[in-house]
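Hi team,

Filling in the usual template for the complex we talked about on Friday. All components are listed, including any nucleic acid strands or ligand strings, so the model treats them as one assembly.

SUBMITTER: L.P.
PURPOSE: interface mapping
COMPONENTS: two
RESIDUES: 826
SEQUENCES:
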Amino acid sequence: MMADAMLDACADGHVSCGDEFDDLGSVCLERSHVENGLVRLAEEAQRERTARLSARRQRQLAQSGDHASASREADLADLLSSADLTPDVELQLAGRAAVLGASADARTRYERVMRAADFSPLGAIAAFRLAELAGDEHREDEALTLLDWAVQAADEHLLPYALIKLGDALVIAGKDERAETAYAAAVATDHPDIAPRAALVLALRREGRGDVASATELYDMVIGSNHPEYAPDAHARRNALVHRRTSAVVERWILPAIHGCESEDGPGGDDLELGSEMWMAPLSRTDAQGWTRTEAASSDGWVEGDELVVAFGARGAPDGVGHEVAADALLFVIWSPEGSPPCDPPVVYLEVKEHAALSTDERPHDPAANHSSCCADEWRAQRDGLGAILPDLTMGDSALLIAAVSHVIGVTRCEEARLFGSMFHSTVGELPHLDGRHPAVQEWRRWQSTLVNGCHCAFVGMP
Amino acid sequence: MAISSQTSSAAQQTQALSASEAEGFEQVLSRLLGGYRSRNRNLVAFASGVLAAPSGPVRMPQIAAAAGCRPSAFRRLLDDVELDEGALRRSLVATAPAKQLRALTVETEWVSIVDGRHGNGRQIFSIHAVTDSANVPIGWSAVDTPPPSTQREQSLAVLEAAAIAGLVRQTARDYAAVDPTGLSAAGSRPVVLFDDWYGTNEELRRALGLLVAEYSLAVSGLDVLAHPLRREPDETVDPERSVAEHFDPLRPHVLPMAREIVDGSPSRHGREYVTALSRDGAPSYAIVRPFVPIPPGGLLGRRPEQRAADIAALAASLDHTEAARRLRVRDFLHPDSQGVRRQALLASVLEALREGALEGLAA
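RESULT (copied from the run log):
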């Protein structure tokens, strides 16, 4: 019998010959295995296509509101799908089961996908969703393990969510350092929503630890993102941080000086006493909050009183009289116990400057001059380009500073003090960065309309 | 070189235009192109002849007959003679100053021609400067292609991308010539392409990405993109989801939505977004590339999505003016694309003149 004929005889895959045909028989067997394999592959491909088609139809029907038909398609997809063949369909069915309250079914499917898809983006999704289920059931340790796994395998879509969830889980577990690492990694993904949220969470944690500089930087990052949900929150928290810092400075330095008593960390030996000469003390102290105390005194014929200058964000260390220092803002406190208009009671005002160097030789008030010529004009004339909005320290912060001063003075019942707030700006009244919701700003604006002889000093509030 | 033609009167040469219009047009062409008077008269006659020719496809004999001239005069004018097309374009650009620009739109029109040099059809592209008060065609291009079909031919995609990108590049140069700092001072003005045939053309998007900061290319809801859109953890993973499926159900009268295309690049900067909105009850989709300036180390947040949605809203407010149809560019079945381009430019300048936008040149 010819080999071809033998092969034809074996075309149905059965070995029907005796020993003398063993070689041909094995060929027939092998051919039948191959054919069976091809058939299986074709069947699997068909199953895969049909399962995905059913899953897609299920979604479309569910969206259109035909839930009965959607349910039938889901059943068909369930029949054809398996974790090995269609892990994506399994994920969809598991999600549907979770929504319908069948947690056990969802859990089983997710576990199967994790096993089948292993270390892959689909496996990561399964692990992430399983972690959510575990968290709902208060199995935090299991959730933590699953989230760790998900982070390792996640793609760009899932990674930000997995990181922030991991951070939250680590906080619950008391692993703060790892939590912060996870949050920082979530920030680095620059996800449209997760990154600002993670930055806000991180800022809160850093603020709680006293790391003000880092917290402020993170708050600024969230504010800069302009996220509709997280940016306002960050803005409010940053404002509160500035307010707290300012209040502390006012209590520690300004009030004691006003009351003529030493502050707790009073002036050091190098600081000059208040006297008749105005000069600049060396910047002897800085603290982590960015405030530096500088003392200066009035000169003859200038202001009959004493002045304390607190520089915020000062840089540089002048080494002599009348040298310039660069500062983000200067808080002037002038008081004249013996009275000398217009600064009869203590005057506290904040001036926000550009980063250009500022010389404290220049006088904010000159009572010798005609008051109607407006100290503010003279002040501005002496400083070309000053009065612009400071990009780093917004005028909103300035309002908070004044509010903090007034609050603290009010609390201490400094009844003799009338608080003046004045912000010099090239176009008075147009300060766009001021937060108009703040009571101090509203008050200031109200009194702006009652200029006295052109002077821009205004009553901010009475304690 | 003087173009010789029969020395017919101006009235005979410009039957579609009134005598004063023809004279004005000739003055404009003289100021823009210089050259011999007879050549410019022939250009006026040609433009007029196209307008006066019978409706439907026209060729040189019909145009010449309508203009009262010999076809040979026109043929040489379009195909052989040097003509400063840039001067014509810049005169149009000057009518839409950069600071008034809202967007640059690209219109496309495919027309069947029998004796085209490559393929049996022609894709006509025009780029338009859109201001609040005007929509001016400022550049034209033509590519001979087979008719569009469901199968996207890769080689043709490259040709067409080159044509569109070339128009955009040319426009930038023309604006720079008219007002060197105008475009940069005006800020980003998106390029908007209405035809959804081109939205998934990656060659085109790559080319535009190098030329402009922002663009909006229409896509079909049935298109399946090469890269996935950003999804949330509970969303379905299906690489074959169409554009429309990502936004279903699309509700009318809501603001445009935008979803980021996660293309695997290491940073979100410069990424594209798919936008969707319902316009007059019909869904409209586009691939949009927004530009959002941000300091180093800052977070993008949702600003790119918002800017993409703004661009989508702007694009939806703009209209396809069917300039190729209006100016009879699609009717002019000339064998050579240069001739088509010149006819289009002449018609555009004539239209601008008739609308009073070139009064300075006509005076």
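MY TAKE: Chain A has a mean pLDDT of 64. The interface with chain B takes residues 52, 55-56, 59-60, 63-64, 88, 91-92, 95, 121-122, 125, 128-129, 156-158, 161-162, 187, 190, 192-193, 195-196, 199, 221-222, 224-228, 231 of chain A (CB under 8 Å).

Thanks, L.
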